[in-house]
Specification:
mainly alpha
């Protein structure tokens, strides 16, 4: 089951890395692109990819948590599953609730969003939803980081248990 744990660790690490990379892409897009609407389109498309990946990877990790779960601490297994559900729910909310709502508001504002008046109710609502979107992504990233550490600790504990039987038997280390 070590191979499955390694694959699971890789998947959660890939998603977490993609989410962190997305944050950098978002900053760079708004700094480099000449029009903020273009940057918003790049960021929105990139965020959709991160969200769909989070839903799929989180679902796969929840399903694979069932395999080989007989030998692990049940409390940490359920904490891991809860954190994975947080990731899936956050990505789904961000994509299918906040994203759709923000797109609807964006379509109602004539012209670029930054040209709307500061007291425009649509701009105020868009900014609030954008803030919620940032918080939801941050919650998913924190849950992914905690999940990464839980899975990694389980892999480390399994390796430690295997080698504990005879820690001074070095013939196992150099076996070809």
């Amino acid at each position: 089951m070590k191979f499955l744990s390694d694959i699971r660790l890789l998947l959660i690490g890939l998603w977490l890395g993609a989410a962190v990379f997305f944050a950098g892409v978002a900053q760079a897009a708004f700094a480099v692109l000449p029009q903020r609407d273009l940057a918003g389109a790049v960021v929105g498309r990139s965020l959709s990819i991160v969200d769909y990946a989070g839903i799929v990877i989180g679902g796969v990790l929840i399903l694979t948590s069932i395999l080989g779960s007989a030998r692990v601490n049940k409390l940490w297994l359920w904490v891991e599953r809860f954190l994975l559900l947080v990731i899936v729910a956050a990505c789904a909310i961000e994509e299918f609730v906040l994203g759709i709502w923000m797109a609807a508001i964006r379509s109602q504002i004539s012209g670029p969003i930054e040209n709307a008046a500061a007291d425009d109710p649509l701009k105020i609502r868009f900014d609030q939803l954008h803030q919620y979107s940032e918080w939801v992504l941050l919650a998913a990233m924190i849950a992914a980081l905690l999940t990464f550490f839980i899975i990694a600790n389980r892999v480390y504990a399994a390796i430690k248990a295997e080698t504990k039987s005879d820690i001074y038997d070095f013939s196992k280390e150099f076996k070809i």
